[in-house]
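Figure S4 source data
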Amino acid sequence: MPMRHVFVVPLVAWAVLTLAACSGANVDITKAVQVTDLTTGWYDAGVENGLNKLVPTIGFRLKNAMAIPLRNVQLNAVFRRIGETEEWGASYIRVIQNEGLAAGATTNEIVLRSNLGYTSTDARSQMLRHSEFRDVRVKVFAKQGSAEWTSLGEWDIPRVLIVPSYKPQSSSPKS
Protein backbone atom coordinates (compact mmCIF):
# COMPACT_ATOMS: atom_id res chain seq x y z
CA MET A 1 0.00 0.00 0.00
CA PRO A 2 2.72 2.61 0.81
CA MET A 3 4.27 1.89 -2.58
CA ARG A 4 1.01 2.78 -4.29
CA HIS A 5 0.91 6.24 -2.67
CA VAL A 6 4.47 6.92 -3.75
CA PHE A 7 3.54 6.10 -7.34
CA VAL A 8 0.23 8.03 -7.37
CA VAL A 9 1.72 11.39 -6.25
CA PRO A 10 4.27 11.60 -9.11
CA LEU A 11 1.61 10.40 -11.56
CA VAL A 12 -0.82 13.13 -10.44
CA ALA A 13 1.93 15.78 -10.63
CA TRP A 14 2.86 14.62 -14.14
CA ALA A 15 -0.80 14.75 -15.24
CA VAL A 16 -1.25 18.30 -13.90
CA LEU A 17 1.92 19.54 -15.63
CA THR A 18 0.96 17.86 -18.90
CA LEU A 19 -2.54 19.36 -18.80
CA ALA A 20 -1.12 22.84 -18.10
CA ALA A 21 1.31 22.56 -21.03
CA CYS A 22 -1.40 21.38 -23.41
CA SER A 23 -3.86 24.08 -22.40
CA GLY A 24 -1.39 26.86 -23.14
CA ALA A 25 -0.42 27.83 -19.61
CA ASN A 26 0.38 31.52 -19.32
CA VAL A 27 3.95 32.58 -20.05
CA ASP A 28 5.85 35.87 -19.92
CA ILE A 29 4.79 37.12 -23.35
CA THR A 30 7.71 39.57 -23.57
CA LYS A 31 10.10 36.60 -23.44
CA ALA A 32 7.90 34.27 -25.47
CA VAL A 33 7.76 36.36 -28.66
CA GLN A 34 10.05 38.56 -30.73
CA VAL A 35 8.71 41.32 -33.00
CA THR A 36 10.28 41.02 -36.48
CA ASP A 37 9.85 42.60 -39.93
CA LEU A 38 8.39 45.82 -38.49
CA THR A 39 6.80 48.38 -40.84
CA THR A 40 4.84 51.50 -39.95
CA GLY A 41 3.20 54.30 -41.89
CA TRP A 42 -0.08 55.82 -43.00
CA TYR A 43 -2.41 53.42 -44.81
CA ASP A 44 -4.51 54.69 -47.69
CA ALA A 45 -7.95 53.67 -46.40
CA GLY A 46 -9.71 54.89 -49.54
CA VAL A 47 -12.51 57.43 -49.65
CA GLU A 48 -14.90 58.06 -46.76
CA ASN A 49 -17.80 60.48 -47.19
CA GLY A 50 -16.13 61.86 -50.31
CA LEU A 51 -12.82 62.52 -48.54
CA ASN A 52 -9.47 60.73 -48.82
CA LYS A 53 -8.67 58.88 -45.60
CA LEU A 54 -5.30 57.92 -44.07
CA VAL A 55 -4.98 55.81 -40.92
CA PRO A 56 -1.85 55.03 -38.86
CA THR A 57 -0.73 51.43 -39.34
CA ILE A 58 1.80 48.99 -37.93
CA GLY A 59 2.72 45.66 -39.46
CA PHE A 60 5.06 42.97 -38.11
CA ARG A 61 5.52 39.27 -37.51
CA LEU A 62 5.83 37.47 -34.19
CA LYS A 63 8.44 34.78 -33.69
CA ASN A 64 7.93 32.16 -31.00
CA ALA A 65 11.12 32.38 -28.94
CA MET A 66 10.14 29.49 -26.67
CA ALA A 67 10.97 25.80 -26.92
CA ILE A 68 7.27 24.85 -26.81
CA PRO A 69 4.26 25.85 -28.92
CA LEU A 70 2.64 29.18 -28.04
CA ARG A 71 -1.15 29.39 -27.88
CA ASN A 72 -3.92 31.95 -27.38
CA VAL A 73 -2.13 35.24 -28.04
CA GLN A 74 -4.01 38.52 -28.43
CA LEU A 75 -2.71 41.94 -29.47
CA ASN A 76 -4.03 45.42 -28.85
CA ALA A 77 -2.52 48.48 -30.52
CA VAL A 78 -3.23 51.87 -28.95
CA PHE A 79 -2.60 54.92 -31.14
CA ARG A 80 -2.01 58.35 -29.61
CA ARG A 81 -1.10 61.66 -31.17
CA ILE A 82 2.36 62.62 -29.97
CA GLY A 83 2.14 64.96 -26.99
CA GLU A 84 -1.34 63.74 -26.01
CA THR A 85 -2.27 61.16 -23.39
CA GLU A 86 -5.73 60.27 -24.70
CA GLU A 87 -6.19 57.29 -26.97
CA TRP A 88 -6.73 58.37 -30.58
CA GLY A 89 -7.58 54.99 -32.02
CA ALA A 90 -7.08 51.30 -31.41
CA SER A 91 -6.95 47.90 -33.05
CA TYR A 92 -7.42 44.45 -31.48
CA ILE A 93 -6.71 41.01 -32.93
CA ARG A 94 -6.34 37.39 -31.84
CA VAL A 95 -3.20 36.25 -33.61
CA ILE A 96 -2.44 32.78 -32.31
CA GLN A 97 -5.36 30.48 -31.58
CA ASN A 98 -5.58 27.09 -29.85
CA GLU A 99 -3.66 25.32 -32.66
CA GLY A 100 -0.60 27.26 -31.54
CA LEU A 101 2.60 28.55 -33.08
CA ALA A 102 5.40 25.98 -33.08
CA ALA A 103 8.66 26.64 -31.26
CA GLY A 104 10.86 28.90 -33.40
CA ALA A 105 8.08 29.53 -35.94
CA THR A 106 6.99 32.96 -37.16
CA THR A 107 3.47 34.21 -37.82
CA ASN A 108 2.29 35.62 -41.12
CA GLU A 109 2.33 39.42 -41.23
CA ILE A 110 0.08 40.99 -38.60
CA VAL A 111 -1.40 44.38 -39.50
CA LEU A 112 -2.99 46.68 -36.95
CA ARG A 113 -4.66 49.89 -38.12
CA SER A 114 -6.24 52.64 -36.09
CA ASN A 115 -9.99 52.99 -36.45
CA LEU A 116 -9.39 56.77 -36.62
CA GLY A 117 -7.33 58.76 -39.06
CA TYR A 118 -7.22 61.93 -41.12
CA THR A 119 -9.60 62.84 -43.94
CA SER A 120 -9.23 65.55 -46.54
CA THR A 121 -10.00 66.59 -50.09
CA ASP A 122 -6.21 67.02 -50.55
CA ALA A 123 -4.21 64.38 -52.37
CA ARG A 124 -2.98 61.71 -49.96
CA SER A 125 0.69 62.70 -50.38
CA GLN A 126 -0.25 66.32 -49.60
CA MET A 127 -2.14 65.26 -46.48
CA LEU A 128 1.11 64.06 -44.88
CA ARG A 129 2.60 67.57 -45.35
CA HIS A 130 -0.44 69.53 -44.16
CA SER A 131 0.28 72.10 -41.42
CA GLU A 132 -2.43 70.61 -39.15
CA PHE A 133 -1.17 67.03 -39.52
CA ARG A 134 -0.19 65.59 -36.11
CA ASP A 135 2.26 62.71 -35.78
CA VAL A 136 1.16 59.52 -34.04
CA ARG A 137 2.80 56.90 -31.84
CA VAL A 138 1.54 53.34 -31.42
CA LYS A 139 2.00 51.14 -28.38
CA VAL A 140 1.39 47.42 -28.90
CA PHE A 141 0.23 45.27 -26.00
CA ALA A 142 0.05 41.48 -25.93
CA LYS A 143 -1.36 38.85 -23.67
CA GLN A 144 -1.40 35.11 -23.69
CA GLY A 145 -4.41 33.31 -22.31
CA SER A 146 -5.87 35.07 -19.30
CA ALA A 147 -2.66 36.91 -18.38
CA GLU A 148 -2.49 40.68 -17.98
CA TRP A 149 -1.78 42.93 -20.98
CA THR A 150 1.96 43.60 -21.36
CA SER A 151 3.70 46.13 -23.62
CA LEU A 152 5.64 44.66 -26.56
CA GLY A 153 6.91 48.06 -27.65
CA GLU A 154 6.16 51.58 -28.79
CA TRP A 155 6.88 53.09 -32.21
CA ASP A 156 6.40 56.45 -33.92
CA ILE A 157 4.44 56.32 -37.15
CA PRO A 158 6.54 58.03 -39.87
CA ARG A 159 4.92 60.17 -42.53
CA VAL A 160 5.14 57.42 -45.14
CA LEU A 161 2.21 56.46 -47.34
CA ILE A 162 1.27 52.77 -47.41
CA VAL A 163 -0.75 52.01 -50.52
CA PRO A 164 -2.93 48.88 -50.62
CA SER A 165 -1.43 46.14 -52.77
CA TYR A 166 -2.84 45.99 -56.27
CA LYS A 167 -3.63 42.43 -57.27
CA PRO A 168 -4.79 42.16 -60.86
CA GLN A 169 -7.53 39.66 -61.45
CA SER A 170 -6.69 36.91 -63.87
CA SER A 171 -8.79 36.86 -66.94
CA SER A 172 -9.42 34.09 -69.38
CA PRO A 173 -7.79 34.42 -72.80
CA LYS A 174 -9.93 36.00 -75.47
CA SER A 175 -10.65 33.84 -78.46
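Figure S5 source data
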Amino acid sequence: MANPKKPGVAPRDAGDAGEAFAAACLEAEGFKVISRNFCVRQGEIDLVAQDDQYLVFVEVKARKPGSMVRPEEAVDFHKQRRLRAVAEYYLMRNPTPLQPRFDVMCVEHGPDGELNLSNWIENAF
Protein backbone atom coordinates (compact mmCIF):
# COMPACT_ATOMS: atom_id res chain seq x y z
CA MET A 1 0.00 0.00 0.00
CA ALA A 2 1.33 3.45 -0.92
CA ASN A 3 1.90 6.03 1.77
CA PRO A 4 -0.62 8.86 1.62
CA LYS A 5 0.92 12.19 0.72
CA LYS A 6 0.83 14.94 3.28
CA PRO A 7 -1.22 17.95 2.26
CA GLY A 8 0.64 21.14 1.47
CA VAL A 9 3.03 22.51 -1.06
CA ALA A 10 5.46 20.23 -2.86
CA PRO A 11 9.13 21.01 -2.09
CA ARG A 12 9.95 22.21 -5.63
CA ASP A 13 6.85 24.41 -5.67
CA ALA A 14 7.78 25.77 -2.24
CA GLY A 15 11.29 26.54 -3.48
CA ASP A 16 9.94 28.24 -6.59
CA ALA A 17 7.57 30.33 -4.49
CA GLY A 18 10.42 31.30 -2.17
CA GLU A 19 12.61 32.32 -5.12
CA ALA A 20 9.81 34.39 -6.67
CA PHE A 21 9.24 36.11 -3.32
CA ALA A 22 12.98 36.80 -2.90
CA ALA A 23 13.10 38.23 -6.44
CA ALA A 24 10.22 40.56 -5.58
CA CYS A 25 12.07 41.67 -2.42
CA LEU A 26 15.20 42.41 -4.46
CA GLU A 27 13.21 44.43 -6.98
CA ALA A 28 11.52 46.38 -4.18
CA GLU A 29 15.01 47.36 -3.00
CA GLY A 30 15.99 48.65 -6.44
CA PHE A 31 17.72 45.59 -7.88
CA LYS A 32 17.02 44.25 -11.34
CA VAL A 33 16.82 40.46 -11.48
CA ILE A 34 18.71 39.46 -14.61
CA SER A 35 18.75 35.67 -14.25
CA ARG A 36 16.78 33.01 -12.40
CA ASN A 37 18.06 29.50 -11.84
CA PHE A 38 21.34 29.97 -13.69
CA CYS A 39 22.44 26.37 -14.07
CA VAL A 40 25.69 24.83 -15.30
CA ARG A 41 27.46 21.54 -14.66
CA GLN A 42 29.02 22.86 -11.42
CA GLY A 43 25.65 23.79 -9.91
CA GLU A 44 22.96 26.42 -9.85
CA ILE A 45 22.53 29.97 -8.63
CA ASP A 46 18.95 30.82 -7.70
CA LEU A 47 18.99 34.51 -8.62
CA VAL A 48 21.41 36.94 -10.21
CA ALA A 49 20.54 40.60 -9.71
CA GLN A 50 22.22 43.94 -10.14
CA ASP A 51 22.00 47.53 -9.04
CA ASP A 52 24.31 50.44 -9.84
CA GLN A 53 27.16 49.01 -7.78
CA TYR A 54 26.81 45.23 -7.37
CA LEU A 55 26.19 42.07 -9.32
CA VAL A 56 24.59 39.90 -6.65
CA PHE A 57 24.52 36.10 -6.72
CA VAL A 58 21.66 35.10 -4.44
CA GLU A 59 21.09 31.76 -2.76
CA VAL A 60 17.47 31.51 -1.59
CA LYS A 61 16.64 29.15 1.25
CA ALA A 62 12.97 28.59 2.04
CA ARG A 63 11.86 26.83 5.21
CA LYS A 64 8.76 26.24 7.24
CA PRO A 65 8.78 27.81 10.72
CA GLY A 66 10.19 25.47 13.30
CA SER A 67 12.42 23.59 10.87
CA MET A 68 15.30 21.76 12.47
CA VAL A 69 17.90 23.75 10.51
CA ARG A 70 17.81 27.50 10.04
CA PRO A 71 17.89 28.41 6.33
CA GLU A 72 21.25 30.17 6.46
CA GLU A 73 22.87 27.11 8.07
CA ALA A 74 22.17 25.14 4.87
CA VAL A 75 24.68 27.31 2.98
CA ASP A 76 27.74 25.48 4.27
CA PHE A 77 31.33 25.53 2.99
CA HIS A 78 30.62 22.99 0.24
CA LYS A 79 27.58 24.92 -1.01
CA GLN A 80 29.60 28.15 -0.97
CA ARG A 81 32.36 26.50 -3.01
CA ARG A 82 29.83 25.33 -5.63
CA LEU A 83 28.23 28.79 -5.77
CA ARG A 84 31.64 30.41 -6.31
CA ALA A 85 32.40 28.02 -9.18
CA VAL A 86 29.07 28.80 -10.87
CA ALA A 87 29.58 32.53 -10.33
CA GLU A 88 33.06 32.35 -11.90
CA TYR A 89 31.55 30.66 -14.95
CA TYR A 90 28.78 33.28 -15.09
CA LEU A 91 31.34 36.10 -14.96
CA MET A 92 33.45 34.52 -17.71
CA ARG A 93 30.38 34.43 -19.94
CA ASN A 94 28.99 37.79 -18.79
CA PRO A 95 31.82 40.23 -17.96
CA THR A 96 30.77 43.24 -15.91
CA PRO A 97 32.40 46.21 -14.20
CA LEU A 98 30.10 45.67 -11.20
CA GLN A 99 31.44 44.32 -7.93
CA PRO A 100 30.27 40.71 -7.41
CA ARG A 101 28.64 39.83 -4.12
CA PHE A 102 27.05 36.71 -2.61
CA ASP A 103 23.84 37.12 -0.63
CA VAL A 104 21.68 34.58 1.17
CA MET A 105 17.96 35.28 1.43
CA CYS A 106 15.98 33.25 3.96
CA VAL A 107 12.26 32.90 3.28
CA GLU A 108 9.83 31.38 5.75
CA HIS A 109 6.53 29.81 4.76
CA GLY A 110 3.81 30.70 7.24
CA PRO A 111 0.99 28.39 8.31
CA ASP A 112 -1.50 30.17 6.04
CA GLY A 113 0.79 30.08 3.01
CA GLU A 114 2.15 33.60 3.46
CA LEU A 115 5.84 34.19 2.82
CA ASN A 116 8.17 36.30 4.94
CA LEU A 117 11.78 37.33 4.46
CA SER A 118 13.25 36.20 7.77
CA ASN A 119 16.85 37.14 7.00
CA TRP A 120 18.79 38.75 4.16
CA ILE A 121 22.51 38.29 4.60
CA GLU A 122 24.34 40.67 2.28
CA ASN A 123 27.92 39.77 1.37
CA ALA A 124 27.41 36.45 3.15
CA PHE A 125 30.72 34.94 2.08
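The longest helix spans residues 11-28. The chain has a mean pLDDT of 89.
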